[in-house]
Amino acid sequence: MINAVGREIPERIRGYAEAIPFAGAFATNPSMRRQAPAVKKIRPGESKLLGSLEEAFAKIPVTNGMTLSFHHHFRNGDKLVNMVLDIAARLGLRDLKIALSSVFPVHAPMIGHMKTGVVTALDTNYMSGPVAQAVSRGILENAVVLRTHGGRARAIECGQLTIDVAFIAAPAADDYGNLNGVQGPAACGSLGYAFPDAEFAAHVVAVTDYLADYPLSPAAIEQTKVDYVVKVDQVGDPAGIVSGTTKITKDPVGLKIAAGAAQVINAAGLIQNGFSFQTGAGGASLATAHFVRRIMEEQNISGSFVLGGITGYMVEMLECGLFKKLLDVQGFDLAAVRSIAANPNHREISAGFYASPFNNGCAVNKLDAVILGATEIDIDFNVNVATGSDGVIMGGSGGHADAAAGAKVAIVAANLLRGRLPIIVDKVHTVTTPGETIDVLVTERGIAVNPARTDLQEKLASAGLPVKDIHELKLLAEAIAGVPDQLITGDKVIAVVEYRDGTVIDVIRQVEA
């Protein structure tokens, strides 16, 4: 099957249900209903508080072949996934599917459980580190499913991803299952990615290292959704939240790109009262926010909201009155954690509210501009953020494809060369975000506009920005670094890349072991 971005999709993929080819960013309409967990009751006087995770395994009970879910708000400081999988191994469980919203280097012990058959399937939105490398080399027989953040919420709500047990790492909890992420020694901020799991899983186990008096307030996840509460010594290390730079870059090339991206937003006429914005936590993305801030201050602009993963720099812009609200699905640093606990204009949102394409309107639909990264972009503006130049998985869409689809202007800001290789290619190795939703590429050597956006082309050219054809930028990069060799992979499909609507936009094949 050939999909709408020209990728060949196998009709049968091991461990994956029916593959429906991607047909376009807005081509698929929902034809299902939201699922619902079984109705339960608890009598007066019954306790939800258990003495150990092992007791939770026995109470549910957790059995072979189940799907266990986890969230990634602790990022590289997570401790719960490894804890749960070690117990599963000791109990002799097999064939578990792990639905973890993102995988980080801290989850390397999962590889051992894959080798022994404890874990045989993985469903995630992002992967980096040893697990991603092992998957790329074929450690699993079943293909991993790579979703978007909004796509995961949709899949859970609509029953495509059914969860038997959701283990929710809760920085604070009471004995009846009220949870939040803003109190306790391991406070991580928003718990937005855990909301769909808590809402739709068959069983929900809250795991905390800070047990507060009842009733816990505020309660991000309420007692009505939680079956059991378990206290452990340490559920996560908040220092691991800051995995990656959260400071403005000082690199001159990065600053030039960031300044160009801000100029694009301004020339597009988006920086006006009510402006809305999303950017990542990387140094160049934060630098773009810095240049946007300058323009807003010069023009006395008051924006409406900043969306997505929130950093201290966004908190500062809120506190300075440049934006009225922060909509926070995940904290990227400890300043964001402190802010969401104290400021009512810093709002915690769910992954579905953030980016699910199948509800009555997600927040990305209200974005004016988003700044995105890329490992590769091709001449059709398709973007790869999943695999590196060696074909190994080193990321995933996360909110990339979601925000690109929703924003009025989606900007990829990237160096023309990445690791001495041209970023612009004829065809990206892996399509994660379709070119129809990418509007502008900003590099240090020029700006390319998607031919479908003639309106933007005219505005940017009129503003005197260095607009070039993407083919011209590609040739310029190749003149500097040469044409990269074509990557050869094996036949085995090791990952399915789903678009946010559940269709298959690409597959990733095994690299050499």
Automatic annotation (TrEMBL):
Query: Does the keyword Hydrolase belong to this entry?
Result: no
Q: What GO cellular component entries does it have?
A: ATP-independent citrate lyase complex; cytoplasm
Q: Can you say where in the cell this protein is located? A: Cytoplasm
Q: What is its EC number?
A: 2.8.3.10, 4.1.3.6
Alphabetized, the UniProt keywords read: Cytoplasm, Lyase, Transferase
Q: Which InterPro entries match?
A: Citrate_lyase_asu, NagB/RpiA_transferase-like
Recorded protein name is Citrate lyase alpha chain
Native source species: Dendrosporobacter quercicolus
